[in-house]
Amino acid sequence: MVVAYILISTEIGVEGRVLKELESFKEIEEAYIIYGIYDIIAKINLEDETLLKDVVTKIRRIEGVKSTLTIQVLRGFSRKAE
Fold first, then answer.
1. How many whole angstroms separate alpha carbon 22 and alpha carbon 75?
2. Which residues contact residue 4 at a Cβ distance below 8 angstroms, ignoring those fewer than 6 apart?
3. Nearest alpha carbon to residue 25 among 57, 66, 50, 71
4. pLDDT digits over 8-36, tens only?
5. Dihedral angle at the C-alpha atoms of 27, 29, 34, 36, nearest 10 degrees?
């Protein structure tokens, strides 16, 4: 399993439209509009690491996306609310 976070910078005013378009990506588990240098953060879960490049490329091709930064998780833990 490959987990990665993609930080996305968009043109001004298109954050909501880009977030809506990200909903169609089955690989994206969660995505949020955020404050700061980047406008959106998306969490990706993949079965195969070779698919990561393809997903990031599709995100970068969305109209209004200026740049992305990919952070691939090496290991960690989660405390999910039940």
1. 25
2. 43, 44, 46, 52, 70, 71, 72, 73
3. 57
4. 999 999 999 999 999 999 999 999 999 99
5. -60
> pLDDT-based confidence at 72, cuts 50/70/90?
very high
Model pTM? Answer: 0.91
The token duo for 8 is: 């996305």
pLDDT at 82: 63
Alpha helices (runs of H) in the chain, residue ranges in sequence order:
15-22, 52-60
> CA 8 to CA 68: how far, in whole Å?
5
Residue 44 pairs in a beta bridge with 4, 28
